[in-house]
Amino acid sequence: MEGDTFLVDDVHGLVYCPVPKVGCSFWKRVFAILDGKHKSSYLFNLSSVSIHNTRAAYDGLKQKPLLMKYFLLQSSTKFMFVRDPYERLFSGYIDKIFTPNALGGRLSQQISPNSDHQTSCATDATFTEFLRYVTHSNSVNQHFKPAYSTCFPCHMDYDVIGKMETFRQDTESILKSAGVDPRSVFGSVSSFDENSDLSIMRDVAARTFQCLPRCGGCMSKWQVMRRMWATFQVRGYLSINVTFPLSPVKSEKVTLSQVQDLLKDAYRSSGDHSVTKRQRKAAMMETYYSVPRTVLKELEAYVRVDCALFGYDCSVESRFNESSRPVPVFHLDTLLGRVQSNTTKPKPRAKTIAAINYDRRHLQ
Question: Could you state a single Gene Ontology molecular function term (predicted)?
Fold first, then answer.
């Protein structure tokens, strides 16, 4: 196990193993606050971009002397968080590939090196191509590795293995066990979900703006902004009925702070967020059903250990039964802006998220 994988708060007796796409940005901010290494004492005021880019914001186990490592591992509360593997990979694809960002560009040649079509941008890998990369690559990116190969629960005796499905409750329990009042870290429990959602949207918008210089050669600013907006609809933050508000001309002039304000207003006008959260589930199911069964069976083998260790159902037949195939609504591949190759007959363009008058019956 790599010592720098673990984050340490020796004052409160916490040792944490981050699993990407399972709340690790949240917990890195918690550690930065508990260690007193950041000016702000309120978690949602911290940018996950700055936390990820500044390792000095929190202590790692690797920096500790050998005897201190042994003492901390014996005396501290050791914990990690896990998530349904299928949901985690879908989230990773949407966040790191579908949404324009630097990582997607760096991985594009690994994900679709022999693609039979041209892409309009480096991040235009389909979900099927992404899954083939995950299941076949000998050096898959850390964001998509199984949780068991990141935190080694068979070798580390964790005191707590929290789950994304009960994230807030598990987080409160861990903080309280360390003598920390959760409200001193993230404020009122009643506003936790909204504050968390808005914080994520601000961070993704900031990261997207950082990517603009790299995307400029293959996507217009309007296309980048539109893709980002669709991301928030797929992730269940914005209602699919809230249309993208910017024209190509206005997109060229819009600033980051203006976009963040637009997102905040759209979030609060999206209505019942229990409905928008079901959008995320619907988008995930639709996207998985678009994947060939042979690829899904390979994926089933890839996630089998995580499913067995952490109590998730990984059976393709039960999770993606043909009799339950959903009616396509989101059409993510259309939003990728594919440029068909000369040897491929263009297909009729399906409606995109921004153009769909969404029928809420699909989310019941």
Answer: sulfotransferase activity
